[in-house]
């Protein structure tokens, strides 16, 4: 089993330090990982048995999840129950959104949000100091998007209860909210199902996380990656300076991410050797990866792995990550099943919303956040 640790983070260190994106990234890159590239696989997990009445069938899927989460931290899922038409239609909504004239997107600018919601123009936000070519649209959980109807208790990342999403006007892009809602509702259901499998995979009762995901954090993004401006981009390491970064190297913040993308490849996952693995596109599959909050919760038993996006093709790439968390007011402590006899937790208890907001703001200049800020990172200071 891999033994990567985040060396710079002591048990009770403040998360402000941990959160700083370049510091965090550097510490993760410096962490020693004992698995080899040969053990670094991104398995394809067929979810069919996870819907079986038999607990043993469900546990067989959980075991595969555990294997992936303790090594590469990434896996594909197929036969997840979301119709292909729903997947295609959210990618079409993304295409429609990004084709809107910039003037229609200005009202939704991310600088109008305290939580990083709304429209991110190209080269506006950055995860690792790179000028990122991607354009994005971010939104969070709201009850209207939850097929379970929710329980009326949703709170924003900072505990407030105002409505925080920034939606385009229906007249500007008719059917957008409904289309996004169809997808969000479906992926939220799948995420709750996955959490039950995660519970089994961690030797916990299957319903362990259910009560923590009744009005959960669930930030989704529509992302657009233009083809590179350079004429002949190449995957060779020597040509790295020619790469046009779509989304800088990072690990995700929440519990786990479900990623849908168009057929254009671009997702690159950092292997133990330091080389990038270019993820293959599998039609109708999701890529799921462990995120930092889950890594922390499991005392590093589950790995969140660094990844980035570089579009090396001459086609546009669209993607729709969904970052799943628990109810933001939950305070989490290391899961007991992740501690060996006598082992101490590496991390202090922390609130889910508090942690994610700090990580989000840490990607901005002086940690000031996006709200009201015209410039959110120092361009050219990688
Ligand atoms: O667009 C992708 O393929 C990945 C996006 C991603 O890693 C993110 O938004 O955190
Ligand atoms: Fe990511």
From TrEMBL:
Stored InterPro entries: DIOX_N, IPNS-like_FE2OG_OXY, IPNS-like_sf, Iron_ascorbate_oxido_reductase, Oxoglu/Fe-dep_dioxygenase_dom
Keyword Oxidoreductase: yes
Gene3D superfamilies according to UniProt: B-lactam Antibiotic, Isopenicillin N Synthase, Chain
Fe2OG dioxygenase domain ranges (all copies): 208-326
Entries under SUPFAM superfamilies matching the protein: Clavaminate synthase-like
Keywords assigned: Iron, Metal-binding, Oxidoreductase
GO molecular function: metal ion binding; oxidoreductase activity
One GO-annotated biological process of the protein: small molecule biosynthetic process
Family: Belongs to the iron/ascorbate-dependent oxidoreductase family.
Official protein name in the record: Fe2OG dioxygenase domain-containing protein
